[in-house]
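Margin note: ligand = NAP.
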Amino acid sequence: MEMEINGRTRVCGLIGNPVEHTLSPLIHNTLAEKLSHNLVYVPFLVEGGEKEAGQAVRGAYALNVLGMNVTVPHKEHVIPYLTELDDLADKIGAVNTLVRTEGGYKGYNTDMTGLYRAMSSEGIRIEGEDIIVLGAGGAARAVAFLCASYGAKQVWLFNRTIEKAEQVAEEVNAKTGRECIRPMRLSDYAMLPEGKFLAIQCTSVGLYPNVEQAAIVDAAFYERIHTGYDLIYRPAETRFMRMVREAGGKAYHGLKMLLYQGVIAYELWNQVEVPDELADEVYKRMKEEMGIEA
Ligand code: NAP
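Resulting structure:
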């Protein structure tokens, strides 16, 4: 469908470095097209650090930009330039979505609410669950906050560098006022209590092109997992996912998380609800673009 850009067209965009390979324009321009909104979404390369990110935020506001996504390396840089911060984003200390309000932008972290919605759409629960998190980097830390904030029972946080796992556990437990995160060494999975777990894979191990790697390769570990959720979506079946499936569990890649971080941002900007059928249509286009079948 031909879209007409005219005097009333609203602009949204993505700031980051690099931005060339992003799927976000596909997500938002498809939503705008299907919902007949007069809106375009474009990538903005922002080189430099906090200062330049701040200039971009102020510039966007001056240009009447409706909303922004923020990606690497600016998710923390933009925070001092916002007029308001959502509670979860504040705890995590990273923002991927700016919503225009009177006087400035409010920051959200829809990476995490997107992960939550993606998991919910597959029938995966966090509340009351025993959860394994693999990793203690930026993504794992945010996932640990999500789990603690959304009522997980216990979270076993495994990381190669145990000191980083300890740091994340201490911080999340303190900020959420719960003692639910337990730091673990990668080799210590035999210490898990009885029962089966939801495991969220948040390390960068197994990411293309290193598709034959996984943070833990012992089949005994995968016997303990009923559901494995990998944040990685390239490749569409990671070694982690394959090992979960081989042990009889269900496994998911991270492309739906990417879909829903975009859907939630779009909803915040336009104050609409995106119905599941429309999200499915966008998801189909994303999979086509990525060459993913399942
Ligand atoms: P990061 O901050 O660099 O953290 C990397 C993590 O991987 C650390 O816990 C690190 O452990 C671990 N690791 C790296 N190499 C390892 C190895 N050889 N053996 C064991 N552990 C290893 O990265 P991040 O920003 O958290 O991102 C992690 C992954 O999440 C990336 O693959 C990214 O693509 C994915 N992600 C997906 C989405 C989505 O929308 N689907 C969103 C965000 C992120 P140490 O602490 O010991 O170094």
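Residues 113-253 form a domain with the Rossmann fold fold (CATH 3.40.50.720).
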